[in-house]
Every structure is written in C-alpha cells, then in structure tokens.
C-alpha cells in the first residue's frame, strides 16, 4: 500500500486489520499476515513510527496550550495522584483541582484520564518507566 500515516489510518477506519507499505521487506509482510490471521492488527514499522511521531507532536502542541498550573496538575494526575493529594500538594481546594482537571480535558480533547496520561507521556511531563513513591 501507499506509505503515509493518513492512508494507513483511513484503511483501519474502513475496517482493515493490517497495513504494510510497498517498501516493507518480505519478512515484515509475512509477520503481518500471521498477526492478522490470528485475529490481531498489524502495521508496518515505517508507518507505525510515522503515526507515533505525529501523535507525539500533536500531544506536545496540545499540552503547550495549557497554563503552568494546568500543566502541573496534568503531570500530577498522570502520575497517579488523587484529587485530594493534588489539592494538598498545591495548597488548593479539591473543587479547584477538579475544575482544573475539567479544563485540562476540555483544552486537550481528552475524554478519560488514560488519554491524559498518554498526552503527559508524549509531552515528557512524566516518565512512563518511573514508579512514583508517593509516601
């Protein structure tokens, strides 16, 4: 198929289970066929890297629209802190933290806290390999 993330994403939206570009080697094509035959979804490495780069750049630009306090609260939410913990750390009321949380979701278009975690990771606000010691 054509190279380019947009083509691959549209193919998946249309119901495709796999997408391999013309420039992919034979081994990659065979791997993709095997994955799809087992009910999985497959994507050639070149397109996967392109989609990841686009999504990370998108995440960084979305997060850059946040104010400093919003970015800090996003970092804490993505680190697994509760509303109460964030309120105590930042000397805010829980209601204020909840309002910021809502504003962050609105500005970023995130529907869930899991979406916020991915945005924070993509913007390097949190290290996905670090385990926070909160006590």
In short:
The chain is mostly helical and 135 residues long.
Total of DSSP H or I helical runs spanning 4+ residues: 7
β-strand percent reads: under 5%
CATH T-level fold name of the largest domain: Arc Repressor Mutant, subunit A
Report the span from N to C terminus: 52 Å
Query: What is the CATH superfamily classification of the largest domain?
Result: Winged helix-like DNA-binding domain superfamily/Winged helix DNA-binding domain
- Overall tally of structural domains: 2
Strands ordered across the widest β-sheet: 1-2
Classify the secondary structure makeup into a structural class: mainly alpha
Q: Which runs of at least 5 residues are low in confidence (pLDDT < 50)?
A: none
Highest-level CATH class of the largest domain: Mainly Alpha
CATH 2nd-level architecture of the largest domain = Orthogonal Bundle
Helical content class: 55-70%
- Look at the structure and give the mean pLDDT: 87
Q: Per the principal axes of the C-alpha atoms, what is the gross shape?
A: elongated
Number of strands: 2
Rg computed from alpha carbons, rounded to a whole number of angstroms: 19 Å
Biggest pleated-sheet summary: 2 strands, parallel
Order of helices and strands: HEHEHHHHH
Explain what this protein looks like in three dimensions.
This protein is mostly helical and 135 residues long. It folds into 2 domains: 5-48, no CATH class; 65-122, Arc Repressor Mutant, subunit A, CATH 1.10.10. It is 63% helix and 3% strand. It has 7 helices and 2 strands; from the N terminus they run αβαβααααα. Strands 1-2 form a two-stranded parallel sheet. β1 (18-19), α2 and β2 form a beta-alpha-beta unit. α4 packs across α7 (113-122) and α5 crosses α6 (94-108).
């Amino acid at each position: 198929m054509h190279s380019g993330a947009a083509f691959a994403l549209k193919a998946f939206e249309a119901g495709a289970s796999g997408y391999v570009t013309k420039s992919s080697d034979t081994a990659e094509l065979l791997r993709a066929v095997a994955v799809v035959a087992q009910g999985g979804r497959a994507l050639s490495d070149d397109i996967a890297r392109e989609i990841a780069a686009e999504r990370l750049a998108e995440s960084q630009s979305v997060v850059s629209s946040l104010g400093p306090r919003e970015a800090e609260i996003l970092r804490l939410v993505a680190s697994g802190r509760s509303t109460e913990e964030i309120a105590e750390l930042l000397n805010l009321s829980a209601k204020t933290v909840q309002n910021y949380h809502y504003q962050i979701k609105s500005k970023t278009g995130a529907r869930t806290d899991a979406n916020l975690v991915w945005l924070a990771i993509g913007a390097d606000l949190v290290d996905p390999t670090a385990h926070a010691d909160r006590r």
